[in-house]
Each structure stands twice: as structure tokens, then as C-alpha cells.
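> forwarded from #structure-qc
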């Protein structure tokens, strides 16, 4: 039985970059289930849709940042995420890393770096699914 494609949600304030990521992922067999430019839009969508992984920028439209969104995700949704940002402030990067992303990609990055991060994320997500299924069967 073939595995369904990984469902990715993109949170990015730059429409051109978001479109590029969406196109790149879809051409490579990933399913992009949505995009958002702000914290509020992402929270609304993520509470309604099944998502395997988030690609998350730090700078978003509005007052809240991607770091704020990562905190919300960790507390309420438990969706793995990869930061991808052009942020250079070490203090901000450290705050982002303290939210436990699967990876942190500095923009601009080579597509191979993105796919390496996605491949590693896929392994982690598959492992978590198998663990959850085994625990459900044991109950």
C-alpha cells in the first residue's frame, strides 16, 4: 500500500516566496494543504485541517511572529515544523530554536537543503505515527 503524500502547510509573509515553495513542493510530490501570511490565519486553518508538517517563517503579517505560532503549535496542536527565515538576529534565532523546530533553514537556501530537512521530517513523522498506532492497538 502506497503512503499518501505528506501534507504541508506554509506560513510565510512573502507571497512570492510562498508561491515558490508551494510550486516546488507540489512538483516533488508533497501536498500543500494551505498557506497563511499571519498568525491568526494560520491558527484558524490549522485547527480545521489535517497537517503533517509546517514550513514556518519568523516574520509574519500582524503583531504575532512565527515564534509565537510555534509556541501555540507546541501547546495545542503538536504539529512538527521547520523554520525557514532570513532572520539574522542571534537572539531571535535562539528564541526560534528554543521552540524545538525539526530544522532551521536560513533563506535563501538551496532546494536540496529543504528536501534534506523534509526527508528527515518525514522519517520522524512516520515514526510518531507508527508509535501512536501501536499504542492505539494496545488499548
Amino acid at each position: 500500500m502506497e503512503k499518501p503524500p505528506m501534507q504541508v502547510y506554509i506560513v510565510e509573509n512573502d507571497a512570492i516566496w510562498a508561491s515558490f515553495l508551494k510550486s516546488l513542493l507540489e512538483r516533488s510530490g508533497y501536498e500543500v494543504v494551505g498557506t497563511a501570511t499571519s498568525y491568526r490565519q494560520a491558527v484558524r486553518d490549522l485547527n480545521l485541517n489535517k497537517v503533517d508538517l509546517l514550513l514556518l517563517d519568523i516574520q509574519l503579517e500582524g503583531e504575532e511572529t512565527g515564534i509565537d505560532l510555534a509556541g501555540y503549535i507546541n501547546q495545542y496542536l503538536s504539529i512538527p515544523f521547520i523554520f525557514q527565515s532570513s532572520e539574522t538576529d542571534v537572539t531571535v534565532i535562539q528564541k526560534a530554536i528554543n521552540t524545538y523546530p525539526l530544522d532551521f533553514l536560513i533563506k535563501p537556501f538551496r532546494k536540496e537543503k529543504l528536501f534534506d530537512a523534509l526527508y528527515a521530517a518525514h522519517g520522524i513523522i512516520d515514526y510518531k505515527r507508527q508509535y501512536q498506532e501501536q499504542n492505539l492497538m494496545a488499548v
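QC bot note: DSSP finds five helices and five strands in the chain. The mean pLDDT is 89.
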